[in-house]
Every structure is written in structure tokens, then in C-alpha cells.
Design brief:
- The chain is an alpha+beta fold.
- Helices cover 48% and strands 6% of the residues.
- Helix 5 packs antiparallel against helix 6, helix 5 packs parallel to helix 7 and helix 6 packs antiparallel against helix 7.
Length: 494
């Protein structure tokens, strides 16, 4: 055999894929807390989606590829009259949920928003349920949807704990694609072989660069990138269920696998040995950890690394609102991840650029004592020149202890501090907040506010009677879980 001849012994599936498949197919969810938080995640994600329908930049992306197309037993898009094939419905639902950067969040070596997976889960569950009713079979229930969410959250979140895809310029939506693939495959009744095939295609697929999330190219693609990923997962599962063979060593194949092509050196910051730099680090078994520790955006739609900055600025607002012209310096003390992702100087091109700018969010919160989705709009920015004046006075400083606490599994803090200095030599106190309202450590204060967020955003799209019915249903864990998926989704149709 020649030296350049490849050995064609087909390997077994990479262990990472097998672990995901076995967890997806066989794990029993026993955590009462996970079921409870999954219900709040469902409510919160749908609330974010309904609010996004108030924004034409979002709604222009929704609907069938061919105008007027209605798919028999197609998946419905909440808050609309669209009835689409599951791939496009998955795209639309996740686009809505993600558009305003107001949905739940996960922060670790990699970042992301696990509720992005709901588009694929809900679209497939709705379509399957309608199809099964036509065939005189029982539909899926919302218990199945919540279980799928717990599974998808766990896969996405655990892979993010120690593996920084951002370090090689890959967008975190690669994990949405993988997690949605697993959850959707189970909903569709995939065998272990079929699920492994689908997962391998999710990993070998084309993956988005982070370019559209980073200065100077931030654009609204970041609001539909996850929609693209979860919709692609639905398509890949369908391909696998039609008998497509898998790619067993998709991660580990020398030269051609994911590790060698796309993941080299991503873990240098973790000081791993060279021989370990090219592989995923997954020391924690899959369970319900991610759902139990998910982060909510409760009070305002700010990129999560800035949530405690905004809260600190709102505390300082009464002290500075009448002294804006006297401000000479504003110190924003933060952690390394925030500096790398959202610290920016110079002009901001669009709403997507502004909602990923630490200084912009801090300036609005200081000036007005609030931050809403409308605060990022062109018209709002153009009418408030004081925002950029304050941005120019900001200094961003890393606190090493904040950065360490961010990665500490016993803390998982997202700490920020703000202090304002005036031209007479006086200054405010340094307001430091280590855990945002949506953190597990502040969960009891957050849950009633999340319920109110859901109730308020239902009212932006649905009749009052329907809002009351949905709020009552989603407030009752047992009743919600027993509700047929097609019945639940039908309540959101307009």
C-alpha cells in the first residue's frame, strides 16, 4: 500500500455524539425544578416572540417563501396566521424569539440562548400533533415540548461550559443546530442510528462565523442566525430519517474532521496540554443542570454581559440626571467576556450594533433610568445626542476577580460596577452588582416578574380573553403539561 493511500476502515461514531444520543434517548427527567423552570422558559420565549412582532424589521422576515402558501397540517407561527412547513416555521418562531435579544441566556466559555431551540421543537411538535390527530392517534402534549427543551438546553449549555467556539471565530449557533437536531430527532421517533446520523450531519454542516456579532460588522443577522440553525436542524433530521448514512468520525477524522479543520487551539485560554487542544472538554455528564441555572432577561432587553451594568446605572440615575453636563468620567468596571464582546467606541451603525454596545446601554440607563427595545431604534438614537456624549466619557476597566467569578462554577457571576465622576471633584458611590435579576441566586424575585412579562406581552398581540386563558393555562404546571401541543399553539393563532 502506498504511503499516500488512505485507510478506509470505517470507525464507530465519535464518543461525543454517542453521549449526546444516549442522553437524548434514555435520560429520565426527575428534577422538579427543571420542569418548573422549563415552563417559565416557554412563557418567556413566547413573550419575547410576541413582542418582536411589533417591529417591522422582524415581521418582514416571516411567512412562507412563496406568498400565500398554506401547508396542510403545517406548523403554526404564534401571533400570526401563518401555517408553514416545519422547517420555515422553525425559522420564523426562533427569529421572533431571538429578535430583540430579550430571551434567556447561557454564559460560559461559550455563550448562547438556549430558547433559540424552541422554534424547531414547537414547530415539529405542532405539525406532528396535527398529523397524528388526522390519523386518529393521540397528539403530543406540552409535557413533550418541555422535556425537549430541557434536553436541548442541556446539550447546548454543557457543550458551552468549557469549549470556546468564539475563540476560533465560530458563532455559538453551531450549538443550537446540534441541540435542536437531538431534540427534534427524538420528537420524530428517531432510532439511535438515525439520531447519530443526524447529529453527524449537524457537526459536518457549514457553520456561521461570528463576524455579524463583532465590531465593525454587527448587523441584524445576529437576530436570525439561531433561527437558521434550528431550521437547519429540522431539515437534517428529516434527511437522516429518510435513510441518509452518517459520518461517524465527523469530529475526530485526521485533517478532515471538525477538530482539525475548525477547532484548533480554541482552548488555549484554559491552558490545556497541546494534545488536548483540539478536542471538546466535556467533564460534566448531561442532566438538568443548564435548565436549573438558566439566566433570564427579566427587566430590560440588554445583552446579558451588560445586565448588571444597566441595573447599576439605573440605581445611579436619580443622582446624575440633573448633573449630566458636570460629568467628566464614567468608569465601567467589568469582566473580560464583556470587554471582548460588547465594549465599543465610535459610531454605531444600527439597532443591532447598539444593543451589543456596553457603553450605549449604560448611557441610556444613566440618562433615562430605563432601557427598552425601542431604545435601540434609529429614531430614538438620533433624537438623543446626550447618549453619545456620555459614551465618550466612559472608561472600561477589567476587574480580574470579576472575570474569575464569571467562570467559577460555584458562582457563575456576571459582575459589573459603575461610578460617575464630576468636574467639581465629587463622585457617586461605586455601585457594584454581581448577580443580575435573572440569575438563579435571585430566582424568587425574578419569577413573578417573568410571569408579568409574559402577561404584558400576550396583550400586545392577542385578545384580552385569550390572554387570560393562556396566562391561566401557563400558570398551572400540571394542566399545561397535559395540554395537546396543537391545542396550545392554536390559542396563539390570530
Amino acid at each position: 500500500m502506498g504511503a499516500n493511500t488512505a485507510v478506509n476502515d470505517r470507525p464507530d461514531y465519535d464518543q461525543i455524539l454517542q453521549d449526546i444520543a444516549d442522553y437524548t434517548l434514555h435520560f429520565t427527567i426527575e428534577s422538579t425544578e427543571a420542569w418548573l423552570i422549563a415552563r417559565y422558559c416557554l412563557m418567556d420565549a413566547l413573550a419575547c416572540g410576541l413582542l418582536a412582532l411589533q417591529f417591522p424589521e422582524c415581521t418582514k422576515q416571516l411567512g412562507p417563501i412563496v406568498d400565500g402558501t398554506i401547508v396542510p397540517n403545517g406548523a403554526r407561527v404564534p401571533g400570526t396566521s401563518f401555517q408553514l412547513d416545519p422547517v420555515k416555521a422553525a425559522w420564523d418562531i426562533s427569529c421572533m424569539i431571538r429578535w430583540l435579544d430579550y430571551n434567556d441566556t447561557w454564559l460560559a466559555a461559550e455563550w448562547g440562548h438556549p430558547s433559540d431551540n424552541l422554534g424547531g421543537i414547537l414547530a415539529v411538535a405542532d405539525h406532528l400533533s396535527q398529523q397524528q390527530v388526522v390519523e386518529n392517534k393521540p397528539p403530543l402534549t406540552m409535557h413533550d415540548v418541555l422535556a425537549s427543551m430541557i434536553i436541548a438546553y442541556e446539550i447546548q449549555g454543557c457543550l458551552a461550559l468549557h469549549n470556546a467556539f468564539n475563540r476560533v471565530g465560530l458563532d455559538h449557533t453551531v450549538l443550537v443546530k446540534v441541540a435542536s437536531t437531538a431534540a427534534v430527532a427524538k420528537l420524530r421517533g428517531a432510532s439511535r442510528r438515525q439520531l447519530l446520523s443526524a447529529l453527524s450531519h449537524a457537526w459536518v454542516d457549514g457553520h456561521s462565523l461570528r463576524t455579524y456579532r463583532q465590531a465593525p460588522n454587527v448587523s441584524s443577522r445576529k437576530s436570525w442566525a439561531a433561527a437558521d440553525a434550528t431550521a437547519r436542524a429540522v431539515r437534517l433530521v428529516d434527511i437522516a430519517l429518510r435513510g441518509e448514512a452518517g459520518i461517524p468520525s465527523v469530529l475526530t477524522a485526521p485533517q478532515w474532521g471538525f477538530y482539525d479543520v475548525l477547532f484548533a487551539h480554541t482552548n488555549r485560554d484554559l491552558q490545556l496540554k497541546p494534545e488536548h487542544e483540539r478536542v471538546f472538554k466535556c467533564p460534566q455528564p448531561y442532566g438538568t443542570y443548564v435548565m436549573e441555572n438558566i439566566l433570564f432577561k427579566v427587566a430590560f432587553p440588554a445583552e446579558f454581559h451588560a445586565q448588571t451594568t444597566c441595573e447599576a446605572c439605573m440605581i445611579l440615575h436619580p443622582q446624575v440626571k440633573d448633573r449630566l453636563d458636570d460629568i467628566v468620567r464614567i468608569e465601567l468596571t467589568t469582566h473580560e467576556a464583556a470587554i471582548r464582546i460588547i465594549s465599543k467606541q465610535g459610531p454605531l451603525a444600527n439597532a443591532a450594533d447598539r444593543d451589543h454596545c456596553l457603553q450605549y446601554m449604560a448611557a441610556v440607563s444613566l440618562l433615562f433610568g430605563y432601557l427598552t427595545a425601542d431604545s435601540y431604534a434609529d429614531c430614538f438614537h438620533q433624537q438623543q445626542p446626550a447618549i453619545d456624549t456620555l459614551r465618550d466619557k466612559m472608561v472600561v476597566i477589567e476587574d480580574q476577580q470579576y472575570s474569575q467569578a464569571y467562570h467559577d462554577p460555584d458562582k457563575r457571576a456576571i459582575a459589573n460596577a459603575v461610578q460617575v465622576f464630576f468636574n467639581d471633584g465629587s463622585n457617586t458611590n461605586k455601585v457594584a452588582i454581581h448577580y443580575p435579576l435573572g440569575h438563579r441566586r435571585r430566582r424568587q424575585a425574578a419569577l413573578p416578574l417573568l410571569a408579568q412579562k409574559f402577561k404584558d406581552h400576550l396583550a400586545t398581540r392577542l385578545p384580552a380573553i385569550r390572554c387570560d386563558e393562556l396566562f391561566a393555562l401557563c400558570s398551572d404546571q400540571k394542566k399545561l403539561e397535559s395540554t395537546a401541543v396543537n391545542t396550545f399553539v392554536a390559542m396563539f393563532v390570530v
